[in-house]
Design brief:
The complex is a heterodimer of chains A (147) and B (324). Chain A is of the alpha/beta class and 147 residues long. Chain A contains four helices and five strands. Chain A has a five-stranded parallel sheet with strand order 2-1-3-4-5, sandwiched between helices. The termini of chain A are far apart. Chain B has 324 residues and is an alpha+beta fold. Chain B folds into two domains: 81 residues, Helix Hairpins, CATH 1.10.287; 149 residues, Heat Shock Protein 90, CATH 3.30.565.10. Chain B is built from eight helices and nine strands. In chain B, strand 1 and strand 2 form a beta hairpin. In chain B, helix 2 packs antiparallel against helix 3, helix 4 crosses helix 5 and helix 5 packs antiparallel against helix 8. The longest helix of chain B is centred in the first third of the chain and has 65 residues. Classes of the chains: A alpha/beta (147), B alpha+beta (324). The interface between A and B is medium-sized, with 14 and 17 residues.
Chain lengths: 147, 324
């Protein structure tokens, strides 16, 4: 991959700055540009601004959680087809209702797992059919977290 | 007390009430429990000149005694139920605590492992042999911590009941054969030989295949860890009455008698494991035992120092309605 010419953007949604740094380095190593969001709200705005080819999504976030970010992205035509991979400490991806994701990596991960999955999702760029996200107004927002 | 409604000891209001109810006689008997009088039986008789028959008094006394016993029991039962509930809440709180602590530990471990891995890979520049070796120690210990966290999580899940899934009839023979084939494909460093002696047509057991596989996996990896170089580990699966018996035997150094009973307690590490620095969390067999007991089974250990160890798991066979 020619890093300079084909730089595609990966959106990294993670509230732990150390883990964010780790994932950023992995993606940069693969030749991608990385934009980072520490909250779900920031993730939505950054997605609109940078049109990422992949979203790496933590679930436990201050403010709206990762599943809500996913629902909002999927509800938007522009992001209906972007591959999303979850990177979380939650070891029960089946819990709760949410649109399907294209990859699930449990923390702590092996860096090779991240490289392999992210590389594959960016290369194919095609997502499995997804359920339409729930409309935003059905979802409650209780508080806005800090960063 | 007869003609009570005319008795001057009663307040006028009481007299009026007794009169309107046409009560002629009253018999009060206290209900006495261990802690003193807790209630009273009041017998009210109609008719102005009613006289209590002689047996009325002993009868109500006996009734009061029965009532005292019944009320005491009811109270004890209530207290006991409350205590059980409190213990249950406490246990749940403990499980929740372990579970959230374990989850929280995963976050810092993610960074520790990830950055160490990158350093070892030379992502931040070439390392000399000593630096490699030191980072290797960090990585190994991070992995150890992770294994411990995973075991603690598994255990807290088993204990909180959330690990239970709808049991389905499982073919233990097939699970065992599958796992053996997988493990034989990845031979251990010590060149331990794995041998399966699995009876054909074993009846199914009721349970969760993933959990039963974990039981076998834990027992097998223990057996391999404690085997001498080139030793044999034998897995037997057979049927005995209405139980399926699974045995895992090794030719290791055995377990001293006084340690055998402690094997299934949390964080217990055998003296051999400590002396030979064999890695482990001290939770593996606790998990195994919990899973086996969740499946209404039993686990035993048979070992002679210097003569190997055999773990025996017995699981009840599934009673499946005959197919029509």
């Amino acid at each position: 991959m020619n890093a300079m010419e084909t730089q595609s953007t990966v959106l990294l949604v993670e509230d732990d700055s150390d883990i964010r740094g780790l994932l950023r380095r992995r993606m940069e190593r693969l030749g991608h540009r990385v934009v980072e969001a520490a909250t779900g709200e920031a993730a939505i705005s950054l997605a609109r601004l940078h049109h990422p080819v992949l979203v790496m999504l933590d679930i436990l976030l201050p403010g709206i959680d990762g599943w809500e970010v996913l629902r909002r992205l999927r509800a938007d035509d522009e992001f209906a087809d972007i591959p999303v991979m979850v990177v979380s400490i939650l070891d029960d991806p089946e819990s709760g209702e949410h649109p399907p994701v294209q990859g699930y990596v449990l923390k702590p991960f092996r860096t090779a797992e991240i490289d392999e999955l992210a590389g594959r999702l960016i290369a194919t760029g095609v997502v499995a059919p997804v359920d339409a996200g729930r409309p935003d107004d059905e979802v409650e927002h209780t508080h806005r977290g800090h960063q | 007390m007869a003609n009570v409604a005319e008795h001057s000891e009663f307040l006028p209001a009481w007299r009026e009430l007794l009169q309107s109810l046409n009560v002629g006689a009253l018999l009060f008997t206290p209900v006495v429990a261990r802690e003193g009088s807790i209630a009273a039986i009041a017998l009210l008789a109609h008719g102005r000149n009613y006289e209590w028959p002689p047996e009325a008094r002993p009868l109500t006394v006996a009734m009061a005694a029965d009532l005292a016993t019944a009320l005491t029991h009811a109270r004890l039962y209530e207290q006991e139920a409350e205590m059980v509930q409190q213990l249950r809440n406490l246990d749940q709180a403990k499980s929740d605590f372990v579970s959230s602590v374990s989850h929280e530990l995963r976050t810092p471990l993610t960074s520790i492992r990830g950055y160490v891995e990158m350093l070892i890979d030379g992502d931040a520049g070439e390392l000399d042999a000593e630096q490699q070796q030191m980072l290797g120690v960090v990585e190994r210990n991070a992995d150890r911590l992770l294994a411990l966290i995973e075991d603690l999580l598994t255990l807290s899940r088993i204990e909180s009941g959330s690990f239970r899934v709808a049991p389905a009839p499982d073919r233990l023979g097939e699970i065992t054969e599958g796992l053996l084939a997988e493990m034989v494909a990845q031979p251990s460093a010590q060149g331990v030989q794995l041998v399966g002696e699995i009876e054909s047509d074993l009846p199914p057991v009721l349970g969760d295949a993933g959990q039963l596989e974990r039981v076998l996996m834990n027992l097998l990896s223990n057996a391999i860890k404690f085997s001498p170089d080139g030793g044999r580990v034998v897995v037997r699966a057979s049927v005995d009455g209405d139980e399926v018996v699974l045995e895992v035997s090794d030719e290791g150094m055995g377990i001293p008698m006084d340690e055998q009973e402690k094997l299934f307690s949390r964080f217990f590490r055998s003296s051999a494991a400590q002396e030979r620095a064999i890695q482990g969390t001290g939770l593996g067999l606790v998990i195994v035992k919990s899973i086996v007991e969740n499946h209404h089974g039993r686990i035993d250990v048979r070992s002679l120092p210097g003569d190997g160890t055999t773990f025996t798991v017995r699981l009840p066979t599934a009673r499946i309605p005959a197919e029509v």
